[in-house]
Amino acid sequence: MASLPKEPRKLDIDRTPASVKGYIKQLIRWAVIGIKYAGKAYARVSLGDAYIKDGKKFIQVVITVLMKGKPLPLFKISEILINGGDELRGDVVNSGDKGIYSFYYEADIDLSFLEVSVMLDNDEDQNVFSDSFPVPEVKEKKASRLNVAISGIKDKIVSKLRPDGTILVKVFTNDSGKGITGNVSVDSSGKFFISATEYDNSTPSPLTTSDGGVLVLPLKPTEDEQTISISLEGTNEIFEFTYKKEVKKAEKLRAIVPAADDKMVVRELDDSGCFLVHVVTTDKNKEGVTAEFKSTSSGRFWANGIESPDGSVPVSLFTANGDLAVNFKPSQPRQVFVVTLPETAQVVTITYLKMEADELIITIPNEKNGVVCESTVNEGFLTTFETFLSKKGIRDDVLATSLLTFRYKLGDTWSSLVINHLIPINKIETIIIDPSDEWQKINFRTTRTKPQEFEYRKVR
Description:
Blueprint: H1 18-36, E1 42-53, E2 56-67, E3 70-71, E4 76-82, E5 85-86, E6 93-94, E7 100-108, E8 113-122, E9 125-134, E10 145-150, E11 157-158, E12 167-175, E13 178-179, E14 183-188, E15 192-194, E16 197-199, E17 207-208, E18 214-221, E19 225-232, E20 238-244, E21 252-256, E22 265-266, E23 275-282, E24 292-297, E25 301-303, E26 306-308, E27 315-318, E28 323-330, E29 334-341, E30 346-353, E31 359-363, E32 367-368, E33 371-372, E34 381-389, E35 392-393, E36 395-410, E37 413-414, E38 418-426, E39 428-435, E40 439-445, E41 452-457
Parallel strand pairs: 11-20, 22-30, 33-41
Antiparallel strand pairs: 1-2, 2-3, 2-7, 4-5, 4-6, 4-8, 8-9, 10-12, 12-13, 12-18, 14-17, 14-19, 15-16, 15-18, 19-20, 21-23, 23-28, 24-27, 24-29, 25-26, 25-28, 29-30, 31-34, 32-33, 34-35, 34-39, 36-37, 36-38, 36-39, 36-40, 40-41
């Protein structure tokens, strides 16, 4: 009779993962240590976080001091050796408020094994607790996210610069929300400065954020409109914004005329025959804004030396940060000036009404009964004119006329030969009248005074 086949033998295979086995073994070991040192402090060593930075491996070593299975706060740790090296180097440390002391051990990138020894002082005894660990495989931490903060930015547009002409850009690099060092590059559509360094369109090498992942860039654009982008190396993270110079618009026009009355009427000119106007242009917040304004008049005039031949041709000027002093010079005794802010069609009207002397006093040395017989100078004769309105000296013009030509000298300047001419008199002026004939009559008057005639007879 044939024999039955034997039942296959079952193999005793333990499928528990190696990591779990190691953990169980460690728990058993810690329990044995706890029993052995009952009533005394003992140390438990474990490894925490690990990362790679700048070609070095950083491993967190965690030392927990216990007694009867409970953390023992503020217990002195005498010595810590890692792979035989003294980590404390004479420093005194303890187990902290929660019975734990931890630090990061800097190791070579290829280190694979870590042996940690901890010495504790138990009364008069010194106990050493050692453990060995395989170094965990870790990847170098790199920043994966980029955040940028700019004060005053709206819709990724910056329109205002700081007083030093820069935009303060705060760059944050992180990984899983934790700040970490990262390399960033700056690119721009034009030249820019970071601090005092000038860049042509881009930074030639990356800029590195701090250990906490922070970098502050005082960035200064060089163009009125400029696009700037910040990118994080090794990622697709990029932040782009545009600087657009804020262009303030002038919305208010004012004219301040020191010599005018409350109806904006000017009656007296300065020594140069002008009156002063401060033209002020502001925005809606009453802040000074550079703006163009135009001036016209009912007759020929000059504005800061620029002539308008008939007054209808505008003279265009610009305020500087909202203000400009303008000297208007009229050509007529009655003349209207209009200052316009073109963008708003606002106008200011100023009227010049010349004050006319009602009294003219003429003094000529050696004159008797209207006859001048002797010259008091080499050429011609000295004449002093005084113009008054209601006994008050004013500026006016004296019209000199003759049937024959003459010339006059005011200051250091001789006029051309004329037969009639308006001579400007600033309240009182002394001039030289030089007739062209040896026997010649000349009349002097203002608009409101009667002619005064003098006869010149040259003395040989």
